[in-house]
């Protein structure tokens, strides 16, 4: 939205003095567009998780980098019942490796990085959760960690 003002000013200057004189008569909304902080008046759309497969370069070396993003939810380190009232919605992800009976919560919004997995097939389940840890969406990524080349040590 901030790009609109410089574009409008440039257009006004290029269009000539007559149009430039009308720019001060435009409202902020006419120049900048609708405010990005308008309170929601309708229910929020469902949160959605989008997960990419592991990056191939690091995976070939035994390191797993999984990028993800959330739609209709901001990843933030805010938890508890009061956080459920925040709009737009906030939450975090739960990460489970290889169907382990435990998971960890991550609110960084950064890629998930795993090292030290044994060569072979693995899975990572990423669950998008609200601030009270209630699951909203989930995706499971399956991949193979290759065997290290002979003589390769860390």
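Q: What amino acid sequence fits the structure above?
A:
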């Amino acid at each position: 939205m901030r790009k609109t003002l410089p574009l409008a000013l440039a257009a006004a200057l290029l269009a000539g003095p007559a149009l430039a004189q009308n720019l001060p008569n435009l409202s902020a909304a006419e120049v900048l567009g609708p405010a990005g902080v308008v309170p929601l008046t309708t229910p929020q759309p469902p949160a959605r998780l989008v997960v990419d497969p592991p990056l191939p370069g690091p995976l070939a070396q035994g390191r797993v980098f999984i990028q993800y993003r959330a739609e209709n939810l901001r990843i933030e380190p805010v938890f508890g019942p009061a956080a459920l009232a925040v709009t737009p919605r906030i939450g975090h992800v739960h990460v489970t490796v290889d169907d382990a009976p435990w998971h960890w919560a991550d609110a960084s919004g950064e890629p998930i990085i795993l090292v030290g997995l044994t060569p072979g097939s693995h899975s990572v389940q990423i669950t998008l959760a609200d601030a009270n840890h209630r699951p909203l969406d989930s995706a499971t990524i399956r991949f193979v960690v290759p065997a290290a080349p002979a003589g390769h040590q860390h």
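Q: And what stands out in the fold?
A: The two ends are 48 Å apart (CA to CA).
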